[in-house]
Amino acid sequence: MVTVAIANQKGGVGKTTTAIHLADGLARMGKKTLLVDLDAQGNASSIFSDPPPREESVHELFRSRTPAQELARKTRNENLSLLPSVLELAEVETLLAGHVDGFFRLQEGLKYPDGQAPDFIIMDCPPNLGLLTLNAFIASDYCILPILASRFSLDGIRTMLDTLETVHHRFSRELKILGALMTMYNDRTAISGAVLEPVQELISVFKTRISRSVQVEEAHLMRQTLFEYQPKGKIAQEYEAMIQEVLDGIKEG
Ligand SMILES: Nc1ncnc2c1ncn2[C@@H]1O[C@H](COP(=O)(O)OP(=O)(O)O)[C@@H](O)[C@H]1O
Ligand SMILES: [Mg+2]
Description:
There is one protein chain. This protein has about 250 residues and is of the alpha/beta class. It has one domain (about 1-250): 3-Layer(aba) Sandwich (Rossmann fold). The chain contains twelve helices and seven strands. Strands 3-4-2-5-1-6-7 form a seven-stranded mixed sheet, with helices on both faces. Strand 6 (about 140-150), helix 8 and strand 7 (about 175-185) form a beta-alpha-beta unit. It is globular. Bound molecules: adenosine-5'-diphosphate (ADP) and magnesium ion. Adenosine-5'-diphosphate (ADP) binds near residues 16, 43, 127, 183 and 213.
């Protein structure tokens, strides 16, 4: 079992889109995959499922320590299961405050009996570095940072790296950073290239960039991934190339 957190404390940088496509794409390659939606907005969940009752969502894992295995639901992709989010997930931050195991509930909830674990668990994090994101970091082997090609991405990356460093020291959990993924990339804007170099000094960057395309919004409106909506299209191909880089990165250790 390999666990991957998709994180960036900024909103609107392509976390959810990346989580959806990584999870759906891996499942299409025959890997048993679980997508965990940790954002109360539930955008990732909405692509694969109607909103669940609270007791059948990831909220319940945090509230009552119910294992993911009991809560995960099937999706139309037979190798992909979903641990959906609900709006009430936002309450979890206060619910867990003061519980000594508050940082570890996700890690505990993602334990499986021998032979029953999925091959991959992909976690879509909320746009902050709160308790849910920390739970994801503590439960993850790897992380991916979607970023926009903008000057302000640098500060965000530094904050993330500091947080990962803290997780390493406080919780002895050393996540490997698979890389920063440039999303909504536009070759024609000069800023995209100008931002790349200083980013590369801080963190490895995926060779694949995800282009900006209206197809993404269109697919989301249809509640589909690009692998369904436009499987031969540019974005589907880019996410396929990105998944290959993820698999290579994991193989290297
Ligand atoms: N490659 C892309 N091209 C165009 N729009 C995109 C692309 N990726 C994401 N979007 C859109 O940008 C918005 C933010 O993306 P999202 O994945 O939800 O980011 P986050 O989870 O970081 O908030 C969404 O409306 C999404 O549909
Ligand atoms: Mg999101």
